[in-house]
Design a protein that fits this description.
With 294 residues, this protein is α/β, with parallel strands linked by helices. 33% of the residues lie in helices and 29% in strands.
């Protein structure tokens, strides 16, 4: 069992943007979803935990390791798949993993060979090990990314927006792989895709404007909203009026017309019908932005 404890972590960039505003979270083994809109501060938090940038104040510990003050210790047990996983295109999957293993300090060639074979097998790329990564699909590249994040039996794995650009079957394969790994270590999945969290995570936090605005189990959050979400198909030109009168939590087009979900403690009448809330409702109700109408 591992535990990640983040306390009072804050970071303001030189341009004045407060990307992290007093973050406090405890994360146990398993898949943890960090959900937030673009710009919420997720990458800033992930980069700080991955020891790639410093915080202004606060602390973060993985078991006995003080992450901010012992970055070298943390790096030994960290697997990180950044948002942009850049690779030299001519390199093969096998060469890349071998190289990353050297960087992780695995100096014995035979040990590396065995590990690279195990990882290629695990991400189902052993047959493609001699092929240049250049020719790989997005999903295959992400699987190479996961394989490199698993080098050296990490205790903390951070994956930042991993499913962008994957087709549904690639995404599924990637989900299965992560879920498999996630049973034994702390995995943080940072994403703005609600489905990623719904399908994979037993615990989650929602971040907005540098703050944690919710933490808990996705199912609990959904139950909390139960009986308070109503929907209606409206005309596009009426949207502004509805926005003034109701607390709109989401708006999506169905057959060319806006279907709005509103938050209301009691039945608003006016043609609205009650719906079973979903995680998307939770997400939008917590971040409560006004730009969801655009
Ligand atoms: N190096 C930087 N210098 C200045 N501002 C930054 C820097 N990096 C991020 N920001 C700003 O900090 C805020 C949080 O950005 P961050 O990338 O952490 O968010 P995010 O939730 O990961 O979003 P995205 O999904 O778009 O990556 C944003 O307003 C962003 O513009």
């Amino acid at each position: 069992m591992s535990k990640l404890t983040i306390s009072q972590l804050s970071k303001t960039y030189p341009n004045g943007v407060k990307a992290l505003d007093n973050i406090n979270i405890e994360i146990d083994n398993g898949m943890f979803g960090l959900l937030g809109p673009n710009g919420a501060g997720k990458s800033s938090l992930m980069r700080t935990l991955a020891t790639l940038q410093e915080a202004d104040t606060g602390s973060a510990h993985l078991d006995g390791i003080d992450i901010l003050n012992q970055p070298d210790e943390l790096r030994k047990v960290l697997g990180y798949l950044p948002q942009e996983f850049g690779v030299y295109p001519r390199v093969t999957a096998e060469q890349l993993l071998d190289h990353m293993a050297i960087l992780k300090g695995i100096t014995k060639k035979s040990e590396r060979k065995e590990m690279v074979k195990y990882l290629l097998d695990k991400v189902n790329l052993y047959d493609k090990r001699k092929k240049a990564i250049k020719g790989f699909s997005g999903g295959m590249k992400q699987r190479v990314g996961i394989a490199q994040a698993l080098i050296g039996s990490p205790k903390l794995i951070i994956v930042d927006e991993p499913t962008a650009g994957l087709d549904p079957s690639e995404r599924n394969r990637f989900y299965n792989l992560l879920a498999d790994v996630g049973e034994k270590v702390v995995v943080i999945l940072s994403t703005h895709i609600v489905d990623d969290v719904r399908e994979l995570c037993t615990n989650m936090a929602i971040m907005n404007l540098g703050e944690i605005v919710f933490k808990g189990a996705p199912q609990t959050a959904i139950e909390d909203l139960s009986g308070k979400v109503y929907q209606k198909i409206v005309k596009r030109e009426e949207l502004d009026n509805y926005a003034k009168e109701y607390s709109i939590i989401s708006n999506k087009m169905v057959g060319g017309k806006p279907l709005i979900h509103v938050f209301s403690e009691s039945n608003p009448g006016d043609g609205f019908e009650q719906v079973q809330p979903n995680l998307e409702d939770v997400f939008f109700s917590k971040i409560n932005t006004s730009n969801i109408l655009v």
